[in-house]
Amino acid sequence: MGNIFEDEKLFSDRRKNIIFKDKRPLDHRYLPEKLVHRDMQIRQIAKYWVDVLDDVTPSNVTLYGKTGTGKTAASKFAREQLIEAANNANIFVKIEYIRCTDYTTEYQVIAELCNRLGRDVPNRGWTKAEVVNAFRQLFRTNAYGKKLHLIVILDEIDILLDKDGDGILYTLTRADNISVLSISNYLDFKNLINSRVKSSLNDKEIIFPPYGADQLSDILSERAALSFNDDVLEADVIPLCSAMAAKEEGDARYALDLLKNAGELAHDENCKKVVSDHVRRAKDRIEHNKITEIISTLPLQQQRVLEAILTLTKQKEEITSGKLYESYTEISKKDAVTYRRIFDFINELELLGIISTNTVSRGRGKGRTNIIKLQCDETLLETALYTI
Fold first, then answer.
1. Cβ distance 261 to 284 under 8 Å?
2. In whole angstroms, what is the distance from residue 81 CA to residue 87 CA?
3. What are 161-177's pLDDT values in tens digits?
4. What is the DSSP string of 117-149?
5. How far apart are CA 388 and CA 377, in angstroms?
6. What does the pLDDT look like over 317-327, one tens digit per residue?
7. Can you tell me the mean pLDDT for 289-304?
8. Phi, psi of 106 (to 5 degrees)
9. Phi and psi (nearest 5°) for 153?
10. Is the domain covering 220-295 a CATH 1.10.8.60 domain?
């Protein structure tokens, strides 16, 4: 067998793709020349960063907003603009983007920053004090003969703080010529920071509200013009993707995912047009992949709780915590966790969006109880649970 990527049919199929001309703009990481409907937020970031052009350390900034509201894209867009302006002004600025899902401890973040700034530091083996000292040395002398200003973008900072505490913010905010731009999906992430570090941070806050359907439509129209061949999208495709994504808390990533998957379905089926049916099936595909991925990573005991919820749902039972625990213990036999632990599992599954809970009153003297409901398709859940 020759190289599959040089297969003649595969190559010709790629060349004659009548749906796509370039898939890259449909990736949420793609940075367009203009960021639609985020001008105000980008200008706010610029207002807080502009001091660096006068050789003054800029303010620390925090961006809040749900997934898919443009926080990361806006910070990267502002970064590109500031680097260009700083070069023109002969100011030495480095802006380093750190995704905290990849670097989850203070040691890892500081070591990575050292390496990017030209100081070799091992990923493990040094003490934290040695790494921090090596980092600080970079700001005392540098080969450029100019004062180094560093802006560190910490994306999904709550993950780092939750795992390793707030030492990273203390280290960065107490150093000269460094400012931090933090990005979080959670307004309450500062509960993970102690008062001393909050005082050092003294940040400016920028809120990114969810996109509305019309705004999502504008975003998709711009990306579609770059990604699809002319006249392949039926007129109702972008409005449908936008409406569906607006229901998912205004998530632009989800909207782009829908549009891309719809286009891929049309291509795989040798269709000449992308139609609304492709969008609906793309939604099913995305939900299936999401649910399957979530369930495959759940601990065994949580999978059993879900199995119990599924069983009671199929029996048309009203699911109270008591009934759930009974069903769960039947499934788990002698390997069951305590009743109290089940409440933790219920909360975690609700956060993942797989179930919902609603506290109802049973009337005078009868107390209150939690009613649990499944929030994903039964067949989809059953398939995911029993094919893991």
1. no
2. 10
3. 988 999 999 999 988 89
4. TT----SSSS-HHHHHHHHHHTTT--TTSS--E
5. 17
6. 899 989 999 99
7. 89
8. -60, -45
9. -95, 115
10. yes
- Every domain of the chain with CATH number 1.10.10.10 lies at 298-386
What distance in Å separates the CA atoms of residue 222 and residue 31, rounded to the nearest whole number? 12
- Average pLDDT of every residue of the chain: 90
Alpha-carbon span 45 to 150, nearest angstrom: 15
Helix (H) or strand (E) holding 353: none
- In the chain, which segments carry CATH 3.40.50.300? 39-207
Strands 368-374 and 355-361, by their bridges, are: antiparallel
Q: What's 92's DSSP letter? A: -
Amino acid at 12: S
**Fold that domain 39-207 belongs to in CATH:** Rossmann fold (3.40.50)
Contacts of 21 (CB under 8 A, 6+ apart): 227, 228, 229
Top-level class of domain 298-386: mainly alpha
Listed in order, the ranges of the chain carrying CATH 1.10.8.60 are: 220-295
Q: Quick one: tokens of 73? A: 């894209």
Half-sphere exposure (CA, 13 Å, Cβ side) for 323? 16
pLDDT in tens, 54-84: 999 999 999 999 989 999 999 999 999 999 9
90 and 77 in contact (C-beta within 8 Å)?
no
Take residue 323 and report the two structure tokens written for it: 């009934």
Cβ-contact 219, 35 below 8 angstroms: no
CA 196, 110, 143, 152 torsion-angle sign: negative
Q: Which two tokens stand for residue 166?
A: 């707030």
Q: Is the pTM of this model over 0.70?
A: yes
